[in-house]
Specification:
Length: 274
């Protein structure tokens, strides 16, 4: 006599899904809404020329960025930001894997890395402008020069932290170098790599703005400085708000990618918590 057992998986009810979504939305938007209400009340009671009300900033946001300025300033800035992030992540991961695997190369380059990591990327803007010219390439180079470090260093540390027992076991079973890299080293280092990518995004956004403040006649950084110098306060605040929204968008995209890249890692954490 054979006994068959089955596991019944109860699907989540739509009401629970919507309730959880509403709860997450409330947590995400609750504090910003409260701060906006406080800001609006404070600006109406005690108006200040350099701190306009949220309504005035919203009107300036629509007038400034919804229109030709979006194509002339915002899109080029986002394009340079995207190129800089992609190059920083790709170069940082590739170089970090090689340096992390080769011990003598890591020991040779470590003092050089410590030196260049301590150099603030904005001070390189005049040098890069002289070498490559005051153009879009200069801005991308500045972004890459500053954003690559968290990816590179976290990748090196992640590769170094690969379990030595698993590495020796893979070698004893004659696993090829490519298979060890794909199935052992990269999965082991991926949590640290994603941590570096998260830091890279915020640094790249900052450097995008800074690079556009010099030798430039367009872009978000240029426009914000232009508004500040001409005392267009509401427009200046609208540019700051736009930068914040871009940062939120980058965080959402990163969270979406991270959940898929580290799906196995989060699954292990959930099992450990259970």
């Amino acid at each position: 006599m054979t006994l068959y057992t089955s596991t019944v998986i109860t699907p989540r009810r739509p009401s629970r899904v919507w309730a959880k979504l509403g709860e997450n939305t409330a947590y995400a938007l609750g504090l910003p809404i409260i701060l906006l209400v406080i800001w609006g009340i404070w600006s109406s009671i005690s108006p200040a020329p350099f701190f306009p009300s949220p309504i005035v900033i919203a009107e300036a946001f629509i007038e400034t960025w919804v229109g030709p300025a979006f194509f002339a300033d915002v899109l080029p800035s986002l394009g340079r930001l995207a190129i800089g992030i992609v190059l920083a992540v790709a170069l940082g991961i590739a170089a970090g894997i090689v340096i992390g695997l080769v011990q003598w190369l890591r020991e040779l380059l470590e003092p050089v890395f410590e030196f260049f990591r301590a150099v603030p990327p904005p001070v390189l803007i005049p040098i890069v402008a002289v070498l490559v010219g005051a153009n879009d390439l200069m801005k991308v180079v500045v972004i890459v020069a500053g954003a690559i470090w968290p990816v590179l260093l976290n990748t090196i540390e992640g590769v170094r932290a690969t379990d030595s027992v698993m590495t020796e076991t893979a070698r004893s079973f004659a696993v090829t170098s490519g298979e060890r890299l794909r199935y052992l080293v990269l999965p082991s280092a991926s949590p640290r790599i994603m941590t570096g990518v998260r830091q890279c995004l915020s640094i790249a956004l900052i450097l995008m703005v800074i690079s556009e403040m010099f030798f430039s006649s367009s872009g978000l950084g240029y426009r914000i400085v232009y508004f500040q110098r001409n005392y267009l306060i509401a427009e200046m605040w609208s540019g700051i708000v736009l930068l914040g929204l871009i940062g939120v968008l980058l965080a959402v995209i990163f969270g979406f990618v991270e959940r898929r890249v580290l799906r196995w890692y989060h699954g292990i954490k959930e099992v450990e918590r259970a």
